[in-house]
Amino acid sequence: MSHECDDRGCGEEATPGLSRRDFLCAIAGCAAAAAGSCVDPTHTSFFRDHLRELTPEDRAQMLRELEKDYSARFGQEVEVALDGPREGVEFAYALDLSRCVGCRRCVYACVEENNPSRDPQIHWIRVLEMDKEKGVDFAHANAYYDAQTVPRPGHFYVPVACQHCRNAPCVKTCPVGATWQEPDGIVVIDYDWCIGCRCCMAACPYGARHFNWGEPEIPAEELNPKTHYLGNRPRPRGVVEKCTFCIHRVRAGRYPACVEVCPVGARKFGDLRDPESEIRYILEHKRVFVLKSELDTQPRFYYFFGV
Amino acid sequence: MRTLKAFGEFVLGSLRIVLRGNGLYWLWLLFLGGLIVRGGVAYATQLEHGLVTTSMRDQASWAFYIGNFTFLVGVAAAAVLLVIPAYVYQWKPIQSVVILGELLAISAITMCGLFVTVDVGRPERLWHLVPGLGRLNVPSSLLAWDVVVVNGYFVLNLVIATYLLFSLFRRHKPDPRLFTPLVLLSIPWAIGIHTVTAFLYNGLAARPFWNSSILAPRFLASAFCSGPAVLLVVMQILRRFTRFEIQDAAIWKVAELMAYAMAVNLFLLGAEVFKEYYSATEHLSHMRYMFSGLEGHAPIVPYMWTSVVCSVVAFLLFLVPRTRRNPISLNLGCILIWIGVYLEKGMGLIVPGLTPDTLGEIYEYFPARTEIWVSAGIFSFGFLLFTLMVKVATPIMLGEFHAQSPTSAA
Lengths: 307, 410
Hints:
The complex is a heterodimer of chains A (307) and B (410). Helices cover 23% and strands 15% of the residues of chain A. By secondary structure, chain A is α+β, with helices and mostly antiparallel strands. Residues 11-17 and 29-44 of chain A have low confidence and may be disordered. In chain B, 72% of the residues lie in helices and 0% in strands.
């Protein structure tokens, strides 16, 4: 079930020789060494190389250290995996706007699954309430509708999260290469490489990226201990995060949490390269559209009207 | 060896100069020092609690800090652009004009660096931007390009200023074979830094307010106003308190050029206003947020109108020969231009570009106290740096401060 990152996935093979970390440790000198950060190359995120340049051994050690840190912090066994993409798989998502009732269960299932900060509150999915008269019109959308029962008359609902664009403006704009697209189509962020400049947030046309403005807080009893390095592991303050299609679940052959929880079956997910998949059925038999197609971001997230 | 010794003397002498000054000088330093300390305290709070202490949120993810950064890139660029008229019109104090421009550029770029540093979430990871050590994402990331050109510009100006001052200090004539090409290189580079900074916003298709080809030209036009405005005031102060000779004609010529730059700036703004209001698409919302408010949200409207009024009045003051030659209306014009361009870049560029956000939400951003204090601290640090550098440069330019040790022939 577990696939190691290969050089097509989470990174290239590291080249032997003096690494950046060694160099930085050397110039940082005794202070860092005394603090113990250079003794163990991956213990601290500070002098670490880019994920794509770590050797498999360094990665394994880094994950172990993270597990130790998180386990101590949350008082329970926390797993940090780094499962790589599966060969020949390309994920895509489809959302049936005629079924969605705007109940926001996906929003909360996502929170339970992905360990975002509860205070300050971060939601990866934003459900927009729109007027039926106006169609899909962001200028008049309302994300803060407060209703006793949904759907409200005269309205329909458009949930928006990361669209995992093939032509992703966020990836293009990141000055340090802290966010990239994996071969299975998932756009990921390395929270330990992100400098928090927020260029990607300015570049994203879908408001999908969220910043940890304050110290992220997750009550220990609400933590999901099964995590992925590029996905739902607890985030540090001052970095950007977003939906990863539940990378830890989908790479293990499961559905994203939002797909599972949706009470009306509006959310569909699958492998584009599998001709038998539900997502392929939808693309072939329904008329789909993508948000803001004029920007040519080419999302892997489709919307359609199923009924 | 001799050079090294002279450099030691240069450094020690400079220290002595900055420690000497009248009451006004010390009062100014005290004022700046106080603000720097207050800014430092505010930054410490921000470091402790995170950027949540600012008013920025996901909807307005860049704001006051980045606005100040953009404004100062303009100041840095334009300070050096003043070198062009200095050459074209062959002013007598040409080296003084060049050196003042370079020193202002150095100070402004330092402030730019500080503004970016206080804006990022993980300042301790900024080394990820260093090519070779980190992973600078060129050529695709415009911020990566900006890091390269802005730092390059900083080094270029530092080299030029140090070389020029140190040569004069040693009573050497700066070697034109080295000096002239560097100064000439700094001119297109100055245009480059502001263009790349404009492209940083310009290239984001998600933000229609910025995604307009007119953005870079507008940046340059407004920078051509704000940068020289500082220098005009500084030149007058120097003329008043030192033996610096700066002819009225030179000052008037700069003021005239600023009038043309402001004319272009206002014209380009008008062109944008026309396009947005006449076509009246969804993209108009950003400009409406700026000038009239949107659905009752109008926190920056008064600032934008202040900016427009200041810019127009300053334009008229600089356009009419009588008012640009009168020292009172000239300096009033400089202050109005500074306010006009500062509000336009600091508040009018970034925040309306992000409001309403990509999903149509309107978040009323207004700078938090932390942001204002931190920014005041950074500006004070920049002004302090500029003050000290000008304090040392002035006696060198006047030939009052020079090497004691005998040097080979000048």
